[in-house]
Specification:
The chain is mostly beta strands and 86 residues long. Helices cover 0% and strands 48% of the residues.
Length: 86
């Protein structure tokens, strides 16, 4: 499914529909995971290897690595703004 980039008002992006993703005013990324009611932050990779690498493309889409996994809900990738399940 094609996701939608949303922008922040205040400290949290306006994720209003499944597949939305956006960055808050503090630089943190938020996602609304497909097939769920889950809206959560997506921590960027730290020096200890935890979190996700998030590549922001010129067109505003993002690619995340590794996969996004919510056991018993959804598992897949966000690549150039498109959600693809495993």
């Amino acid at each position: 499914m094609q996701g939608r980039r949303v922008y922040a008002e205040g400290n949290k992006p306006l994720c209003t529909q499944v597949g939305d993703y956006g960055k808050d005013t503090h630089g943190n990324w938020w996602i609304w995971v497909p097939d769920t009611n889950i809206v959560c932050d997506l921590p960027q990779r730290t020096s200890d290897g935890k979190g996700w690498t998030i590549e922001e493309h010129e067109d505003g889409t993002i690619t995340t690595s590794p996969s996004i996994n919510f056991p018993h809900h959804w598992h897949g990738y966000l690549t150039k703004g498109e959600w693809v399940s495993c």
